[in-house]
Amino acid sequence: MNTSKNIMAIFAHADDVELACGGTLSKYRKLFGYRIDYIMSTNNMSGSWCNLNADGKLESRKCPWHEIMPQRKKEADDAARAYYGTEAIHLDLPQRHYLNDNLEKIDLRFGNPQPEGTLPDCPSILTGAEDPATIGRLAELILEQDPEIIFTHAAVDPNPEHTCTTWLVIRAYKKAKEQGYNGSLLLFAGRHSGEAAASYSRCDTFIDISGEWLRLKTEALSLHACQSAGIFAERICNSGFSAPSAVSDVEAAECFIIHQLNDSPGPLTEELQHNSRFFSR
Fold first, then answer.
1. Are 151 and 168 in contact (CB under 8 A)?
2. What's this model's pTM, rounded to 2 decimal places?
């Protein structure tokens, strides 16, 4: 196993990594030399292409999967290299729907054709958490990289691809632990989980990303230019990452729910443990 410290961020789509923990990744890479594992579960074949018109209004353009997928992957690859010094890893599980050449929405249901460019034995993101081979491959990656901390989505989220990614990660995490892995797993407490119910967005701990780290998070997010998150990166970061009310001297924070937080030595674990004291369980 590797001895140097690293963080593994496993999220569903291009720009999810930055939204959830981009400030944390930049902070711990620059201050403490952490390596970053930047992982997306889906193949990013769905989504509209966003642009700002001359009048400042958002225009969302529909485009087929073979146009949006390489662009979203490229933007993720660029962000991973430029801000986290790593190569993005694409697990490439197909999303739950895509647009064909006629811009018709195709849901991945029983009997529907599988999109070109996907492997015939690869489950969609909706069923990846039930596929032993997919769970096993991710568990092997966790064991190989041996991260101090794994970050992923909240377990309850209105976007089913986020939720299914979480359960894939949880099951791979459990399998890796059965084989000796001793790292921690934290879930992002973001606005999406809060849409389900207030209790799902409560956080157990946070990372201070004030100042430079919020700036770097914003810059990295802006590289996802075809998505509205990239266009409105500064607005999103300035409004959505305020510190918990229990902490008065922190300008901005990324907040997390503890699935398991071990005593693995490392500055990231130490900050998460230290900041957990602000919250009652």
1. no
2. 0.92
